[in-house]
Amino acid sequence: MSWEKGERIYDGKGKRVYALKGHNDVLLQEFKNQLTAFNAVKVSELDGKGELNCLITTAIFKFLGEKHIPTHFVEQTSTTSWVTKKLDMIPLEVVVRNILAGSTAKKFAIEEGTPLEKPLVEFYYKKDELNDPFISDEQALMMKAAQSQKDLDTLKSYALAVNKALIEFFHKCGIKLVDFKLEFGVSMDGQIMLGDEISPDSCRLWDEITNEKLDKDRFRRDLGQVKEKYQEVWTRIQKEWSSYV
Ligand code: TMP
Ligand code: ASP
Q1: pTM higher than 0.85, yes or no?
Q2: Which tens digits make up the pLDDT trace of 53-69?
Q3: What are the start-end ranges of the H helices in the chain?
């Protein structure tokens, strides 16, 4: 399919989104080299980061599609761009944790790296001015972030299905899936589906043997070798999941 780029609709932290001429139900998304953390308080450019995230997220979305998880993925159009279905985004970040790290480890003063008995699903309200606060189910309904408890339950069950699939995906690559963030939206025909991206920007990924961090915490915590570790994730995916690359 050949696509003609239309007007720019949105310039986000990690991606630029364009209309596609003659199509009302799809979008072109280009992955940026910009790296941000702490709600863009910390910003940097990393040559080749957009390409690595695009390649990694495309492989993952293809894999999730085969696991019957509805996603916005339509087609990869270059090493830095893909075409997706147009979604009306739900203003919630859905975080799944298998091992405690980051904000929830800090909040409850539990040592980072503590495994959880079962995966924890959390919602955060997407609002930059408020710094994306944690939000309960009842608060999410009050804020009309979701239309019903049934929709929130759908988000949780998709998030757990993604988690199960991705634990398998990354385990084959010798990587522990510590936690990750998902975003969902509603398609033009009213279906809730997975949008946004899944990449080392939006996951915590640790080497299974050494616990070395292979994700954006390298940037957040000034650990260095950010690009090298994103590249390491992509190299392992290419080797183990060649049918999705
Ligand atoms: P947290 O421990 O900071 O709450 O992050 C949980 C996971 O969500 C972690 O894998 C990083 C990811 N994440 C994002 O992708 N975007 C965000 O804005 C935040 C706060 C976290
Ligand atoms: N996603 C947020 C940002 O890009 C926060 C983070 O990932 O640390 O600024």
Answers
A1: yes
A2: 999 999 999 999 999 99
A3: 49-66, 102-107, 137-142, 149-171, 217-220, 226-240
